[in-house]
Amino acid sequence: MVKLVFIPRVIAIHRSAHHSFNKFAEGVLTLVEGLGVQGDAHAGITIKHRSRVARDPNQPNLRQVHLLHAELFDELMAAGFAVWPGELGENITTRSLDLLALPTGARLHIGGSAVIEVTGLRNPCSQLDRFQPGLTAAVLDRDEHGQLVRKAGVMAIVLSPGEVRAGDTIEVVTPEPPHRPLVPV
Questions:
Q1: Which long-range contacts (CB under 8 A, 24 or more apart) does 17-20 make?
Q2: R_g of the chain computed on alpha carbons
Q3: Residue-wise pLDDT tens for the chain (185 aa)?
Q4: CATH fold group of domain 9-173
Q5: Do strands 65-69 and 92-95 pair parallel, antiparallel, or not at all (unpaired)?
Q6: Rounded distance, CA 19 to CA 178, Å?
């Protein structure tokens, strides 16, 4: 019997210089240490997401890079939503990596030199329903204990700079136990 092993990979990369809902496909993303994706509206030392800036513009930017698993797009398409990578605002779309199961502080080594640290979950917002009605509910679920599961990806900060391209492999390094589960940031 042959056992198939799927290596975690980047399947698409996106950015937008504007605070638009969608991000646009790129050939390469440059990750800048402590800032995020070069040329992206959400790059910076302090928070750039408009709703969070309105509350406190001086809070640290724990949302420099947004990652979303391609398996969510598969699930959404099977449920009747026409949604493609980049349309949910992510910078990096992955495959064969259970992003939601990662602990806080997990480090992802992407491509040749980029290293990012997972800071928490993306909390889905009402913009999803403006994009396609019912999409917010589709990216939320309940686990076996009735706890809310947010499936809209994870957020990260850039620890080491580098370029990221579709096809790059991803190596996961988890922090020493005890692991802290991801919470919205």
A1: 17/41, 19/50
A2: 16
A3: 777 778 999 999 999 999 988 999 999 999 999 999 999 999 999 999 888 888 898 999 999 999 999 999 999 999 999 999 999 999 999 999 999 999 999 999 999 999 999 999 999 887 898 899 999 999 999 999 999 999 999 999 999 999 999 999 999 999 999 999 999 99
A4: M1 Pyruvate Kinase; Domain 3 (2.40.33)
A5: parallel
A6: 37
